[in-house]
Specification:
Layout lengths: L8 E5 L9 E3 L8 E8 L4 E7 L11 E5 L2 E4 L10 E8 L2 E7 L2 E2 L2 E2 L3 E4 L4 E3 L5 E2 L4 E2 L1 E8 L2 E7 L2 E2 L2 E2 L4 E4 L4 E3 L15 E7 L2 E9 L4 E6 L4 E2 L11 E8 L2 E7 L8 E4 L4 E3 L4 E2 L7 E5 L2 E5 L4 E2 L2 E2 L3 E4 L4 E3 L9 E7 L2 E6 L2 E2 L2 E2 L3 E4 L7 E5 L13 E3 L6 E15 L5 E16 L6 E9 L2 E9 L1
Antiparallel strand pairs: 1-41, 2-40, 3-4, 4-5, 5-6, 7-8, 8-11, 9-10, 11-12, 13-14, 15-16, 16-19, 17-18, 19-20, 21-22, 22-23, 23-24, 25-26, 26-27, 27-28, 29-32, 30-31, 31-34, 32-33, 34-35, 35-41, 36-37, 37-40, 38-39, 42-43, 43-44, 43-45, 45-46
């Protein structure tokens, strides 16, 4: 018999106030490019977007745009002045810090990070660099916690300071390592870290890294870096985003957990599911934002808590709700609130409205639907054994586990391209020789829970 962790799921439909779209274009034109980050500078009342952009007049923007006094403009001295891509923007001590994959801003050698003081650009210490490749590193995220600026990404040095291993903090004068984080990966000279979060005296770092004992999430417990009591899934799992909400720590990404939920939370003692989580996508989620005591989640997914919620949903601590909106490309890369209005970075159109890369919410308090579930809030997320091999594969896949009921093969946009039923056997061999080359998501449903893994078809 096939069982699920959540056994009761009710749906409450709330009628739409209008058949019209609840979204509109926010007034920029990315020229087919993309936005990686959105930042609300509450000190100076400015909204920033960063990535790889074009401005609405088709002039190159230098990868950062700002919205102030109800209009968009470019940042000074960034026209052909930033030789890379912006991935993160934060406001810190009244100034704007920009991180990403670049080494120069306005002809200044900066090393992956620069700051804007309202008048000019400057470097931040000696920058952050990847010494093995003798070039600039990559900053995935900038975070501010307890009045300290942190950077995570792919780098290992700053000037004469070495051994930073992709996690650094700014002491006002120079960059320094955080609690002597070691090299965590067997696959290269750098850690690939995507985000950092804090819970009490603990530091959590997520990313894409594996060694003999730790995979994709590591915790500093006040004395040592250790593996948290949660299975993420080495090789094809990763943790991309971390935040705090209602006294708990939330993580999101490609979590190859038995729940197949892509999101989990931690209360200081144990990890648990977030309702029935997110499903139906590939690289999810991409961003978290807390607003009006609710957690907003963006990414590439199609369901939240079992209800249709394409790319965007919100969680109130008890249930998931959808805001509606058909995002054509099937992904939202970032979200932020400005003047109580939600902005989302989408690649194309929403509800047949051409958004040009950035859309804003005009739906007021409209909610598409909400689901209510009997959350088992004090259930630890426990690993169970599922193996899928070979990976990469050419003709077939062998799936070993406990009481396998069903296997689904999803393509990169979440469509089921193959489906196999099984009578609770412990091994299943599936033929994938007719699939095109590329990455696929294998979902395995068992009597003990669900499991997901990416595979590459050669």
């Amino acid at each position: 018999m096939r069982y699920h962790i959540v056994v009761i799921l009710l749906f409450i439909s709330i009628p739409a106030f209008s058949q019209q779209s609840n979204w509109e274009a926010a007034g920029i034109h990315t020229g087919g490019k993309y936005i990686n980050t959105i930042c609300n500078d509450t000190v100076n009342d400015v909204l920033y977007v960063g990535g790889y952009l074009w401005f609405s007049n088709n002039l190159d923007s230098g990868y950062v745009l700002r919205f102030r006094n109800n209009k968009w403009d470019t940042m000074p001295n960034l026209f052909n002045g930033l030789n890379g891509i912006v991935r993160s923007i934060v406001q810190y001590h009244g100034e704007i810090y920009v991180g990403g994959t670049f080494d120069k801003v306005d002809s200044i050698l900066t090393g992956s990070i620069a700051k804007w003081d309202g008048n000019s650009w400057s470097k931040v210490g000696n920058g952050l660099w990847a010494s093995a490749s003798n070039k600039y590193g990559n900053i995935w995220k900038l975070r501010v916690y307890n009045d300290t600026l942190y950077a995570v990404g792919i780098f290992d040095s700053s000037g004469g300071v070495t051994g930073i291993n992709s996690l650094a903090k700014w002491n006002g004068i120079k960059w320094e390592a955080v609690n002597d984080l070691p090299l965590l990966s067997h696959s290269g000279p750098y850690n690939d870290l995507r985000d950092v979060g804090f819970y009490g005296n603990k530091v959590f770092v997520g990313g894409n890294f594996q060694n003999d004992t730790i995979d994709d999430l590591v915790m500093f417990d006040g004395a040592n870096w250790v593996k948290p009591d949660i299975y993420v899934g080495g090789g094809y799992g990763e943790v991309d985003v971390i935040t705090n909400y209602k006294g708990e720590l939330y993580i999101g990404g490609n979590l190859d957990m038995n729940t197949n939920s892509y999101i989990a939370k931690y209360n200081g003692t144990f990890w648990s599911n977030v309702g029935t989580g997110l499903s139906g996508g590939f690289y999810i989620p991409t961003d978290f934002r807390v607003h009006n005591n609710e957690l907003y989640v963006s990414g590439q997914f199609y369901y939240a808590g079992g209800i249709p919620a394409k790319c965007l949903a919100k969680w109130d601590g008890v249930r998931w709700c959808a805001l509606g909106g058909n995002f054509f490309r099937g992904v939202i890369s970032a979200l932020e609130f400005y003047h109580d209005t939600l902005f989302v970075a989408c690649l194309d159109s929403v509800d047949n409205v051409f958004a040009n890369g950035l859309a804003r919410w005009i739906g007021g308090s409209y909610v598409d639907s909400c689901g209510v579930s009997n959350i088992i809030s004090k259930n630890n997320i426990q690993p169970f054994k599922i193996s899928i091999f070979p990976n990469p594969t050419t003709n077939s896949l062998v799936i070993n586990g406990e009481q396998i009921c069903e296997v689904q093969v999803h393509n990169s946009i979440g469509q089921i391209v193959k489906q196999f039923s099984n009578k609770t056997k412990n091994e299943l061999v599936i033929n994938v020789s007719d699939l095109k080359s590329g990455i696929y998501l294998i979902s395995v449903f068992t009597s003990k829970g669900n499991y997901t893994q990416k595979i590459f078809k050669e």
